[in-house]
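Blinded run. Sample ID left blank on purpose so nobody reads anything into the name before looking at the predicted structure. Input follows.
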Amino acid sequence: MFETVESFRRAAIEYRSGELESQDPLITELETLSPRRNESSPVRSRV
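Blinded prediction complete.
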């Protein structure tokens, strides 16, 4: 999960600094993600 967050962070920085012309790479990657939370994730939902 960290790798995904880091990838988005870097792409957002590149977009804001003008290194990327559009947000298309971010949008494409978002569309490929599953909405389900990874069961092995250390983050637990609150009840």
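Unblinding after everyone has recorded impressions. The CA atoms of residues 37 and 43 lie 9 Å apart.
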